Amino acid sequence: MAVNKILGTDQVVQIGILVHDIEKTAKAYSEFLGVEPRFVETDAYDQAQTEYKGEPSQARARLAFFSVGPSLDIELIQPDEHPSTWRHDLDQKGEGVHHIAFTIKGMEEKVTLLTQNGMPLLQKGKYTGGEYAYMDANEDLKLVLELLENY
Questions:
Q1: What kind and span of H or E run contains 48?
Q2: How far apart are the C-alpha atoms of 21 and 25, rounded to whole Å?
Q3: Cα–chain-centroid distance for residue 43?
Q4: 44 exposed, middle or buried (CB, 10 Å; 0-12, 13-18, 19+)?
Q5: In b/e form, how buried is each residue of 107-129, taking b as 16+ CB within 10 angstroms?
Q6: Tens digit of pLDDT per residue, the chain (151 long)?
Q7: Taking the complete model, does pTM exceed 0.85, yes or no?
Q8: Contact 102, 12 (CB under 8 A)
């Protein structure tokens, strides 16, 4: 299965890392990279319409983005207590790499194709200007794939 065949791209745009303390970890990344983070809070359910494993979830997270290249961000994620792939993986696996993300076109089609290739949908939602989907690629790729579609 070629990534560019299924997703239409082979360019990683984001590396997501789960953390317990976003302030502490963001400070360490900032000092290491020499780049200041951009902090964001994910939207509430009424805007994000977050679903985790097919069920509505009030899950939210604090995010810190570091631009480390012309098209690559490192994203730190500190989830709240509500059910989400972030909360599950932080509780079960601890801090560390959670996902790599690709910007795609045709979310529904890409989710279907990945599901057919053994990578089921874990979580989906919306953000200002687009939507995301987390696909369970742990068996083959040892992490989660995030699909980002900007409008």
A1: helix 45-48
A2: 6
A3: 14
A4: exposed
A5: beebbebbeeeebebbbbbbeee
A6: 556 678 888 889 999 999 999 999 999 999 999 999 999 999 999 999 999 999 999 999 999 999 998 999 999 999 999 999 999 999 999 999 999 999 999 999 999 999 999 999 999 999 999 999 999 999 999 999 999 999 9
A7: yes
A8: yes
Tell the residue number behind the tokens 């599901």, with chain if given. 115
Angle, alpha carbons 51-5-11 (nearest 5°): 75
Side chain identity, residue 85: T
Distance, C-alpha 94 to centroid of its chain: 16
Lookup result for tokens 């631009």 = 67
